């Protein structure tokens, strides 16, 4: 038997750490020069080798083996980064002079944010271990959909293509296979565009092209006639777009034949949350559709995938990123607790970036175990900026909306989930006023219904009560009715027509839940 064959590994490989050390041996664990880094075997090759030795797909490999290999890779990344003077200085400031022996030690590494990313990977790009002059890189950019400032990251092309294959195969196996059945051609479209610098359309398209057995079309933003032409193709179809792009598919498909509407099997949406109203409209038009989240970012092309239509839980792609849900000190939260999403790309020899905060909050959910897929799971809880600031107190906007929706349903018979296409809180700090804008079909009618049911002071009372039940992210003892009433804030609920300029949208059509003004 080959010395690296399955039989020997099964006997000796009960120790997951030993297996990880064999997959990434000591001579690869610590590259001694920058010149040696581009020659390091890819992490994807280690995943494939692990599959051969274990005789099972990497995504179905036991958690202890996955964890041991990931920790070994993180150790290799830290050793690599110590070859860069800026990273060495940054790590030394946190008393880190070598690789972490455990995940607990890993959590001592300082978190990175967009500022760190800009400083390290824009301009002269001093954070790259292997300089850009070496060649073989791709620069991926975002125009800044939240803060409006450009943001760039650099990837080795060989490793970027590895991640496309890993993520695409995972999507095909665990997310799309059950929906795209039969002998007819299978189609996978994306309506993402690259007009906001050169960001998501390229990266997500790279993943979708690697889904086995499908025909890929990078359509970009489509008009009704183009959409109807695409859906005239024979066979089951899936489409991925930003939330706003998926939301309009009920309008674009109004003239489709019944056969075409029945062929739409999966709508994949990015960027947070698809409103309840839009889900209902899509399901009414497309009877066989599953609506699933594809959670990604420019810095990490596939972070979490929703595998089941009846559960909002997201699953990580094993071996793609090391994903953490952490508290304010950068430590892992317990299962069921909410924290900040932190991502470390595992396929990054030449230009690694450790522990990057993407600006999202997640709830840590139990890992998926048992037969088949074994992976970490989490649930989207909102953007880090989805916070309502009332003086020195901070309230979760998502929880405030849920509480306000429930109270309005009881008090006025108005269901915001059913009525609203979009909602947005606007906080005028100077004037101490928070307004919830809701875009609806019948703005005048809903305004009259709400006013008649609640009276002149009713909105203020309902709003204050809802905020009192939306626990603060950091100081929940202040989230009381008395604290809200003493804040001096006035609250308004304003119904507006669809596409109203009162609701602020980003350059790519996203609707932030919270906007602060003045």
UniProtKB/TrEMBL annotation:
Gene3D superfamilies: N-terminal domain of ligase-like (3.40.50.12780). This is Phenylacetate-CoA ligase.
């Amino acid at each position: 038997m080959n010395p690296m064959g399955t039989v020997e590994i099964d006997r000796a490989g009960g120790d997951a750490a030993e297996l990880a050390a064999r997959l990434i041996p000591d001579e690869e664990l610590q590259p001694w020069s920058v010149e040696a880094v581009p020659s390091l075997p890819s992490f994807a090759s280690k995943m494939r080798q692990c599959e051969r030795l274990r005789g099972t797909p990497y995504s179905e490999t036991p958690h202890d083996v996955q964890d041991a290999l990931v920790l070994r890779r993180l150790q290799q990344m830290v050793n690599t980064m110590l070859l860069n003077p800026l990273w060495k200085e940054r790590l030394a400031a946190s008393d880190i002079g070598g690789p972490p022996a455990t995940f607990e030690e890993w959590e001592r590494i300082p978190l990175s944010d967009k500022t760190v990313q800009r400083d390290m990977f824009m301009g002269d790009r001093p954070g790259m271990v292997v300089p850009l002059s070496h060649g073989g890189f791709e620069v991926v950019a975002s125009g800044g959909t939240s803060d409006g400032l450009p943001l760039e990251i650099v990837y080795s092309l060989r490793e970027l293509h590895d991640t496309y294959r890993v993520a695409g195969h995972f999507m095909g196996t665990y997310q799309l296979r059950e929906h795209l059945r039969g002998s007819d051609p299978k189609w996978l479209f994306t309506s993402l565009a690259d007009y906001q610098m050169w960001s998501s359309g390229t990266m997500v398209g790279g993943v979708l092209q690697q889904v086995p057995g499908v025909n890929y079309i990078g359509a970009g933003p489509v008009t009704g006639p183009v959409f109807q032409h695409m859906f005239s193709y024979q066979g089951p179809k899936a489409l991925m777009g930003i939330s706003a792009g998926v939301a309009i598919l009920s309008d674009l498909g109004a003239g489709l034949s019944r056969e075409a509407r029945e062929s739409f099997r999966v709508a994949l949406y990015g960027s947070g949350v698809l409103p309840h109203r839009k889900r209902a409209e899509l399901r009414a038009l497309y009877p066989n559709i599953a609506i699933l989240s594809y959670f990604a970012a420019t810095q990490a092309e596939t972070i979490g995938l929703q595998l089941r239509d009846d559960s909002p839980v997201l699953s990580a792609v094993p071996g793609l990123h090391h994903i953490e849900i952490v508290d304010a000190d950068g430590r892992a939260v317990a299962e069921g607790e909410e924290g900040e999403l932190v991502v470390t790309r595992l396929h990054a020899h030449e230009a690694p970036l450790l522990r990057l905060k993407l600006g999202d909050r997640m709830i840590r959910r139990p890992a998926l175990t048992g037969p088949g897929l074994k992976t970490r799971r989490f649930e989207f809880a909102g953007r880090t900026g989805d916070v309502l600031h009332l003086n020195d107190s901070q309230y979760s906007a998502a929880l405030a909306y849920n509480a306000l929706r429930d109270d309005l349903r009881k008090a006025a018979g108005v269901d915001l989930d059913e009525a609203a296409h979009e909602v947005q809180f606007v906080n005028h700090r100077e004037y101490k006023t928070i307004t919830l804008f809701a875009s609806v079909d019948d703005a005048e009618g809903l305004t009259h219904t709400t006013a008649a049911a609640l009276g002149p002071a009713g909105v203020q009372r309902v709003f204050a009560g809802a905020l009192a039940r939306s626990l603060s992210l950091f100081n929940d003892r202040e989230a009381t009715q008395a604290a809200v009433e003493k804040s001096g804030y006035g609250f308004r609920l304003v119904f507006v027509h669809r596409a109203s300029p009162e609701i602020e949208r980003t350059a790519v059509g996203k609707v932030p839940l919270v906007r602060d003004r003045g």
